[in-house]
Amino acid sequence: MKIATFNINNVNKRLENLLVWLDESRPDVVCLQELKAEQKAFPLRAIENAGYGAVWKGQRSWNGVAILARDATPVLTRDHLPGDREDMQSRYIEAAVRGVLIGSIYAPNGNPQPGPKFDYKLAWLQRLRRHATALRKTGAPVVLAGDFNVAPTARDIYPTRSWDDDALVQPESRAAYKRLLGRSWTDAWRSLYPDEPGYTFWSYLRNRYERDAGLRLDHLLVSRDLASRIRAAGVDREVRGRTEASDHAPAWIELDPA
Asked: What does UniProt list as catalytic (predicted)?
C-alpha cells in the first residue's frame, strides 16, 4: 500500500501537475494540503477521471485538505480537528481507506513569531497530539500524513542561519513535534533514513530548489502496529522542478500487506 502526502499549493492552479504525478506514481492514497479552493471548487471530476475517489474540506483562498484513494472512495470519519469549536480553518480531514485510518494534516505555519499565530500553531499541534492519542486507543492502524510545518531537527534543514527566527525551526515547534511522536508513532522517513535530509520543501526565493536548500516539513507518521510494515519511503523531488510547480514535493511510504 503506497501512501503519499503532497502540499499542492492551489489544487486548481496545479491540477495538471497533480494529474501527471498521479499517473506516474500511482499511489493508493494521497493526502493533499493547501487546496486554496472553496468546497464547491474542488476539481472532483478530473480527480475521478484519473481513477481516484476523494473527500475534501475546502476553504476559499486558504488552507484546505483532501484525501484521495485509487479505485476507491475514502470513508469520511472527520473533517475537522477536535478541541476548539471556534477554529474554522480547514486543516484536518480523516478517512478510512482499505482498512487504514488516514489523517491529512496542514498544520499552521506560525509566522511571525512570537505572536498570536505562533501561539495558534502550538495550540493546534497540542490538539493534534490529543486526537492522535484518541486514535491510537481505538486500536485501528493509523497514518497521519501532511505538512506539519515543522523541520524537526537540524538534519531537516539545509545548513543556514537565515531561518533561525522562523516558526518552522523554533525549539517550541520542534518540542511539540517530538511530544506528538512520543513512543507511539514512527516518523516513517527517519525510521529508514536516520541521516539523509529528505527535503520536501524548497522556497521559490533565491534559487533554493536549484541549490537544494530545502527543508523536510512533510511527514508520514504511522501507528506502532504499522511500523514493522514500512517497506520503503521516498520523496518525488523532481516534481518540484516542473513548470508551475508547488513549492513542495510529494513524499510517500510503502507498507507491506498485513
From this structure: 106, 147, 248
Length reported for the chain: 258
CA 53, CA 69: separation in Å to the nearest integer? 5
The residues with which 145 forms a beta bridge, in sequence order, are: 104, 220
CATH class of 2-255: alpha beta
**Number of alpha carbons in the 13 Å side-chain half-sphere of residue 63:** 21
Task: Calculate the dihedral angle through the C-alpha atoms of 18, 19, 20, 21, rounding to the nearest 10 degrees.
Answer: 50
Q: Is 248 left (phi over 0), alpha (psi -120 to 50) or beta?
A: beta
Indicate the pTM of the whole model: 0.98
pLDDT in tens, 35-70: 999 999 999 999 999 999 999 999 999 999 999 999
Instruction: List active site positions.
Output: 106, 147, 248
Residue 87 · residue 125 · CB < 8 Å: no
Residue 34 assigned ligand-binding role: yes
Nine cell digits for residue 41 = 471548487
Q: Is 165 annotated as a binding residue?
A: no
Tell me if 131 is assigned to a ligand binding site. no
The C-alpha angle 244, 246, 251, rounded to 5 degrees, equals: 135
